[in-house]
Specification:
The strands form two sheets. The protein has a five-stranded mixed beta sheet with strand order 1-4-5-6-7, sandwiched between helices. The chain has a two-stranded antiparallel ribbon with strand order 2-3. It is elongated. The chain has three domains: 178 residues, no CATH class; 89 residues, no CATH class; 60 residues. The chain is an alpha/beta fold. It is built from 15 helices and seven strands. A hairpin with an 8-residue loop joins strand 4 and strand 5. The longest helix has 24 residues. 49% of the residues lie in helices and 10% in strands.
Length: 349
């Protein structure tokens, strides 16, 4: 599960404009004012350790400093965590050291000498947990020293304190706002994937999608968010989202239909309804077992109810009779129909 969350996080916030918006939420205002976030650019986040094993930070960005002559910038190390890690600060320090080492090597190759000073490496951890972050927030907390020795050696120990954007804490308590609707939509999806309640989710998501009309990468991000919510949140209904989207937003409607087609082709459309046989969650839709046929019928009827209300007994019987042959034609009819009468009329097409 955590790999799914990580992959979606990197796919969305690997986009520099959305990463910059994420930084604006949590970095200190004084630092934000000193950075040219419009020129934020990703850098390689993969490293090899001494045993030639691959080690990878989540996301690393190079952000120029404003009002500075020459090449002046900072590194922002963005890490995604689904659960608190007691050694999170240690991990981030390792990534910072690796990033500095690579910078030194490139500077030496370019100029023939080592740099006199290093760009700052600033850690930002986005916590997508069910409960607020409860782990250590600084490197000092990782040292096995008494408080007395900590006080004596404080200036001689490496220091690093994590900036944590804790999605388990309401925005009003944490502070920070996004400038882009796509950032807000992605964070809404990340919160919903870790909490059981999804009431009003489609309506809130539709409002954010509608507000993102002029933002770059809109279709790709919306598709990622919708697919992520469908596979992670049982109560999320793409059909409800389709109903809520502005009628003039043809691009989003096309994106939703494309996502539905892809999920169906991969066998994941049938992978979510309650009471399905084990193994359906893996997307296997062989349709041999009787329980799988019932699961298909449940999925079709669920979508009909969400989109149009309770189907007639005759329509429900038709769904059950046809479920053994797959759900594809039914999902196409349901998404294309305007009401129950239109859906029944399409059965004779």
């Amino acid at each position: 599960m955590s790999h799914t969350h990580d992959a979606v996080f990197k796919r969305i916030f690997g986009r520099p404009e959305l990463a910059a918006d994420l930084m604006r939420r949590r970095l200190p205002p004084e630092l934000i004012a000193a950075l040219d976030l419009d020129r934020c650019e990703p850098v390689t986040a993969e490293y090899l350790d001494r045993k030639l094993r691959n080690r990878r930070a989540d996301l690393v960005f190079r952000v120029p400093l404003v009002d500075r002559e020459g090449e002046a910038f900072v590194f922002i190390l963005v890490e995604h965590q689904s659960t608190p890690d007691p050694l999170m600060a240690v991990r981030v320090m390792i990534y910072a050291v690796e990033t500095w080492s690579r910078y030194i090597e490139r500077h030496r190759a370019k100029t023939g000498r080592a740099p006199r000073r290093l760009p700052a490496a600033i850690p930002l951890v986005v916590h997508q947990g069910r409960r607020p972050w409860s782990g250590p927030r600084s490197l000092a907390e990782a040292f096995d020293l008494s408080p007395e020795l900590q006080a004596v050696l404080g200036e001689h120990l490496p220091r690093l304190t994590l900036l944590i954007d804790d999605l388990a804490v309401p925005d009003g308590e944490r502070g920070g706002r996004t400038q882009r609707a796509l950032t807000a939509a992605a964070l809404l999806a990340m919160r919903a994937a870790r909490t059981p309640a999804a009431e009003g989710l489609a309506e809130r998501l539709a409002a954010l999608i509608s507000a993102s009309l002029d933002e770059p990468g809109r279709a790709e991000v919306v598709a990622t968010v919708v697919e992520y919510l469908y596979t992670q949140v049982d109560q999320f209904s793409p059909s409800r989202l389709l109903e809520t989207i502005d009628a003039t937003d043809a691009e989003t409607k096309e994106v939703l239909m494309t996502v539905a087609d892809r999920l169906r082709a991969e066998g994941r459309v049938e992978g979510r309804a309650e009471g399905r046989v084990e193994g359906r969650a893996e997307g296997r839709v062989e349709g041999r077992a009787e329980g799988r046929v019932e699961g298909r019928a449940d999925a079709i009827l669920e979508l009909i109810r969400q989109r149009f209300g309770e189907p007639s007994a005759a329509l429900a019987a038709r769904v059950v009779a046809d479920a053994g042959e797959g759900t594809g034609p039914w999902f196409e009819r349901i998404l294309a129909a305007s009401d129950l009468a239109d859906l029944e009329a399409r059965l004779s097409d």
